[in-house]
Amino acid sequence: MSQAIDMTKTIEPKSDQLNADDLLDTTKDITVTDIKLHSSPDQPVSIHYLGDDGRPYKPCKSMRRVLVAAWGKDGGKWIGRSMRLYADPEVTFGKQKVGGIRISHLTGIDGPKSYMLTVTRARRAEHRVEPMDTPKRAELSQQVFDEKMTSIKALIEEGKLTPEQAITNLQKHYGEPTAEQRKTIRALGGGE
Length: 192
Known about the structure:
Elements: E1 27-37, E2 45-49, H1 61-71, E3 82-88, E4 92-93, E5 96-97, E6 100-106, E7 113-120, E8 123-131, H2 142-157, H3 163-173, H4 179-188
Parallel strand pairs: 6-8
Antiparallel strand pairs: 1-2, 1-3, 3-6, 4-5, 7-8
């Protein structure tokens, strides 16, 4: 009898972003934790999500249009919302099929939505997005917690945030803090 050997680590792309290749034969539900704007005209937006391991989703212009139409133009309000991503092998670059990432479901919409999106200069196609149930909050990862603690500590020390407000904000945007993480935050305010 042969031993099972997991080959998935051998096929992970060496990239600074989520790629369509990561979604072959699967979908990925992501919950937005941060939005960053860049000066690059090709990829001006990075959408960070729980468990992104430093590989954010960088949506193409068509998917950014879907997000703005569905969730509004204030990207800050997207934090805490979720989407389902999939690989679409029909996405073209020039005349060549290269594949790309598309959004199939979104939280925060009241029903199915259809958007007419530009495919080529002469052709538009319908893109449909379905409502998505809000995923149950996962536990707040230690990595995200550690990243946020510097600003949380500063805000508490300046009196702009109470420990309980910090915990509520983390719950809303990033996930459920562990008992130890809650204790760490409360200690900043002098309590436990």
